[in-house]
Amino acid sequence: MSLSSTDSPDVVLIGAGIMSATLGTLLKELDPSLSVTLFESLHDCAQESSQGWNNAGTGHAANCELNYTPQRDDGSVDIAKALKVNTQFDLSRQLWAQLVRKGAIPDPQAFIHACPHLSFVWGRKTLPSCVSAIGR
After folding, report:
1. How many beta carbons lie within 10 A of that of residue 130, not counting itself?
2. What 8-state DSSP symbol labels residue 68?
C-alpha cells in the first residue's frame, strides 16, 4: 500500500512491533487528534523482533541483567545503564497502568505477567548472584 497525494498522516510508523505499538499508543494518549499510519511488510504484526521466538517478550527492569551492569577495570560495577533502563521500564509501567485505568487494556492479567529473574555468575572470582522479580 502506498500513500496517495491526499493522504497526510501526522505520524508514520514503520513496522508493527512492540516499539511502534507503544509509540503510537503514547502519541495518541498525548494527542488523540493525531492521525497515525502504520506500515508492516510482513503478514501480521510483531512477527520479527517482537515475535516470541525472537524476543523474550519481557520488559526489563534491569535489576539483574548483567549486560546493564558492566564491571569496570578496577572491579567496581557501573550501574548507570541499569538505572536508566529501570527508569524507562517504570515509565512503561505507568503508561500500561493508565491504559488499564481507562479500560484500554480490559484484562491486564492477559497482558502483563511478573516473572522471577535470576542471574548466576561463576568463575575464578566469586561474584554475588542477584534475584529479583520483574514487574514488581
Report:
1. 15
2. G
CA-closest candidate to residue 61, choices 42, 82, 39: 82
pLDDT at 135: 40
User: What does the pLDDT look like over 38-76, one tens digit per residue?
Assistant: 999 988 887 777 666 666 656 677 777 788 888 889 988
Stated pTM of the model: 0.64
pLDDT at 3: 54
Task: Dig out the grid coordinates for 118 from the structure.
Answer: 535470576
**Best CA proximity match to 3, nearest among 36, 28, 29:** 36
Instruction: Using DSSP bridges, classify how beta strands 130-134 and 115-119 pair: parallel, antiparallel or unpaired.
Output: antiparallel
Cβ atoms 16, 25 nearer than 8 A: no
Residue 85 in grid coordinates = 533502563
